[in-house]
Amino acid sequence: MPGPDTPAPLSVSEVNRRARQTLERDFGELWVEGELSGVSRPGSGHVYFTLKDERAQLRCALFRNRARFVAAPMRDGDLVKVRGRLSIFEPRGDYQLIVEAVQAAGVGELLAAFERLKTRLAAEGVFANARPLPYPPRHLLVLSSPTGAAIRDVLAVLAARWPLAKVTLIPVPVQGREAAPALISALGLLNRQSALDPSRDAILITRGGGSLEDLWAFNDEHLARAIFHSRLPVMSAVGHEVDVTLADFAADVRAPTPSAAAEQLVPDRRELAARLVALAGRLERAQLGRLEREAQRLDHLRARLRHPREALARQRTILAQLEARLVRAIQGRLATERRREAHLAQRLAAHPPGRQLEQASQRLARARGRLLPAMQRELARQRERLGGLARELQAVSPLAVLGRGYAILEDDAGQVIRRATDTEPGQALTARLGEGRLRLEVKRRLKG
Predict the structure, then answer these.
(1) pLDDT of residue 23
(2) Which residue range forms the structural domain that includes residue 187?
(3) End-to-end distance of the chain based on CA atoms, in angstroms?
(4) Is the same domain home to 75 and 196?
(5) Three-state DSSP state, 49
(6) What is the tally of structural domains in the chain?
(7) Which of 1-10, 187-196, 355-364, 368-377 is predicted with the least confidence, judged by mean pLDDT?
(8) For this protein, what is the EC number (predicted)?
């Protein structure tokens, strides 16, 4: 057992907790540079990896809420700089760096600058060009190195596919400090000259592959703007298929390689020749088919054709038949109308209008003689009924009661006062008499 001078032992949890607090307090935030190794992305969205150099390694954790702000891909072997705080994962006692931000180091710095400039130019709309290039262009203007492999590939593909292509090479440097200013100047000159020569209708900017530093001239901000403002449509074919530059984004069309650019710019004469042969065969077959169909139609029409005399005779026969039918129809109609007329005359003679008018006059005189006495009797009956109703109304009328000396009291709202309790001393009332009205004031209320 420990003696009285031996300090009490600490638990493992307490040791790890104190160590974590010491690391976080003493080191604070720091930047660390190293090579990525063992990059892991579990389903939680966190990223775990190791930073290493020639002599040591450091475990790192990049949590999901920070990982979504890292734009560049994190791959084993990349050289990066990370910002974070040293800590200890207490359950396992793992010493680690909690990462807050990741930046590429070395070449990665160029990529970071590229991404920042790309984001800014995209927000300004510099990458909004999407004009179609003429197909094929009447006069293609190529900005490239006169001694590079790119121009040789372009010219070889154009000669093989479309020997009629008119191409003008504008020699410019495609690497180094002079490249971007030379390209910008050439673009401005070509746009000014196109106003004098409208046949110049397309520009190709191209060079072969190389390292990121070799292609950096095509990531120049001013060059991207010059391509965006070019009145002539621009195709960019810089580097290999995996290489992407700001010039590619600013151009109207991007080709992955110089050879692919030439293939996109002009048709293949061999394909066109084969297509022309196929179309000629289709046209010949269509013509033969049309001739055969028209010959068959002509035979059919010839078989249907008759001499005009036959048609006229047939029409005369039809006309005679129609004429006979018309005569019979008219005669039948006339006979029907005559019979109808005779029938109406018989009815008129049997019932002459004069007799009917005389009978109607007699009926009217008799009705008038009955109407006047009936009206007088009805008027007398209604007068007697009206008098009775008037007497009944007079008997129940409030005015008759008022005529016998009674009065009706009303307040200012026109409400009838039925009980003394409905009034208050000093209240003004109106008394309605048989003849006229009185304005009264309540002095006091009496009981009983």
Answers:
(1) 80
(2) 126-267
(3) 114
(4) no
(5) strand
(6) 4
(7) 1-10
(8) 3.1.11.6
Q: Is residue 424 part of a domain?
A: yes
- Cis peptide preceding 352, ω within 30 of 0: no
Tokens of 1: 């057992």
CA dist 348 to 265, 336, 337, 351, 359, Å?
102, 19, 16, 5, 16
Find out whether 61 and 120 touch, Cβ atoms under 8 Å.
no
- For the stretch 95-128, pLDDT in tens is 999 998 887 776 556 677 788 899 999 999 999 9
Structure-token match 């607090």, residue found: 21
Residue 188 pLDDT greater than 90, yes or no: yes
The span from the CA of 106 to the CA of 91, in Å, is 36
Is there a single domain that holds both residue 250 and residue 288? Answer: no
In the three-class reduction of DSSP (H, G, I as helix; E, B as strand; rest coil), residue 441 is classed as strand
Distance CA 223, CA 219 (A): 8
**Token couple for 311:** 């048609």
C-alpha torsion 276→280→281→283, nearest 10:
130
Say how many residues make up the chain. Answer: 448
* Beta strand segments in 139-259, E: 139-144, 167-171, 200-207, 234-238, 253-254
Residue 29 placed within a domain: yes
Q: Catalogue the E-assigned strands of 276-358.
A: none
- Which contacts qualify for 326-330: CB closer than 8 Å, 24 or more apart? none
Partners of residue 95 on adjacent β-strands: 88
Is the pTM higher than 0.70? The answer reads: no
Residue 151 has what pLDDT? 94
Q: What is the CATH number of the domain that holds 87?
A: 2.40.50.140
* 143 and 263 assigned to the same domain: yes
198 and 184 assigned to the same domain: yes
Q: What is the DSSP letter of 422?
A: G
CB contact set of 258 (below 8 Å; sequence gap of 6+): 144, 149, 150, 151, 153, 154, 206, 207, 208, 237
Compute the distance between CA of residue 195 and CA of residue 133 in angstroms, rounded to an integer.
17
For tokens 């032992």, what's the residue? 9
Encode 147-194 in three state secondary structure. CCHHHHHHHHHHHHHCCCCCEEEEECCCCCCCHHHHHHHHHHHHHHHH
% of the chain beyond a pLDDT of 90: 39
In 198-304, where do the E strands start and end?
Answer: 200-207, 234-238, 253-254
**Are residues 245 and 294 located together in one domain of the fold?**
no
Cα 302 to Cα 296: distance, rounded to the nearest angstrom = 10
**Average pLDDT, integer, range 139-151:** 93
Residues 248 and 146 in one domain: yes
Q: Is residue 246 part of a domain?
A: yes
Residues 178 and 263 in one domain: yes
Same domain, 159 and 171: yes
Model pLDDT, residue 205: 96
**Mean per-residue pLDDT over the chain, rounded:** 87
d(CA 206, CA 258): 6
